[in-house]
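> call design_seq(struct)
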């Protein structure tokens, strides 16, 4: 499937749609929706009013049913800035995702423009979710054919500290959120855990789904993209270990690493953020503050330009 063109909904199984936004660069996420007999479940919103209107139009092309639930896979702005435009009756996410959403609410979206000048932030809003869970929550959605089981699972720290994926066992579909970045997008785990991300990718592969919907990048039919993302993160981990052993800085490692096939992937600057995260994990350093994360992002850009 070509990975260019217009954003569109793709039916993966009757009533189960991935909403794909091509190229998947910063803030251009994939989402999804599940059509039942009485209502629609939306999986993540998108990063601007214009993008949300387009997503809504794709839902309306398929069904007039109201959006009853909106699930956020994690608390990054591109996945939740337009929750309110879908008018869900109930929004839900992992407990930690809501805590991060509350912190996100304190940030003026215009501040993002310094790092991402292409964003359209007018009309976006951070709306804290209504319902949270800790480990696993199952939604039973009535469909024309019977019932759809929607398992929402928190795998532990991975892309962030509050991720979830949605597993539809009968349909063989997994909505991964940003637990999976697939080609051509480089994985990004600065706000989570390199180790945890590798383990989560293993867990996702063990589900043997027919298709995996990544948070950014192209659909993965079978486990191919998960294996590639896992290999990339294993490379990051090995290089971070070498860095600690040889007393190298993250910047020195970035200059030395041969990315091989990942060199042709987009957002390569993320290597610095991923190495920084691995470095801190290896040194037993705790989670990073918002300010520390911002400093690393600035270094990523400095390195990408220099
Ligand atoms: Zn994310």
């Amino acid at each position: 499937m070509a990975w260019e063109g217009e954003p569109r909904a793709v039916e993966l199984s009757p009533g189960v749609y991935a909403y794909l936004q091509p190229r998947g660069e910063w803030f251009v996420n994939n989402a999804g929706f599940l059509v039942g007999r009485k209502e629609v479940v939306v999986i993540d919103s998108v990063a601007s009013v214009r993008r949300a209107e387009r997503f809504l139009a794709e839902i309306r092309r398929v069904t007039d049913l109201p959006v009853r639930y909106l699930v956020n896979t994690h608390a990054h702005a591109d996945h939740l800035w337009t929750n309110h435009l879908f008018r869900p009756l109930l929004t839900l996410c992992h407990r930690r995702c809501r805590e991060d959403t509350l912190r996100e609410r304190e940030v003026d979206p215009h501040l993002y423009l310094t790092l991402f000048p292409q964003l359209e932030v007018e009309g976006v809003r951070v709306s804290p979710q209504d319902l949270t869970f800790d480990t696993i929550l199952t939604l039973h959605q009535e469909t024309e054919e019977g019932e759809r089981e929607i398992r929402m699972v928190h795998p532990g720290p991975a892309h962030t500290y509050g991720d979830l994926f949605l597993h539809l066992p009968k349909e063989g579909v997994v909505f991964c959120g940003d637990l999976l970045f697939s080609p051509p997008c480089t994985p990004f785990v600065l706000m989570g855990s390199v180790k945890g991300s590798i383990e989560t990718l293993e867990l996702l592969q063990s589900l043997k789904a027919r298709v995996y919907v990544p948070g950014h990048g192209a659909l993965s039919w079978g486990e191919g993209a998960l294996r590639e993302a896992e290999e990339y993160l294993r490379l990051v981990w090995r290089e971070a270990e070498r860095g600690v052993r040889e007393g190298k800085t993250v910047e020195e490692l970035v200059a030395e690493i041969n990315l091989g096939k990942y060199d042709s992937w987009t957002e390569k600057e993320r290597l610095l953020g991923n190495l920084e995260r691995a470095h801190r994990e290896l040194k037993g350093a705790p989670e990073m503050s918002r300010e520390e994360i911002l400093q690393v992002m600035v270094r990523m850009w400095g390195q990408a330009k220099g």
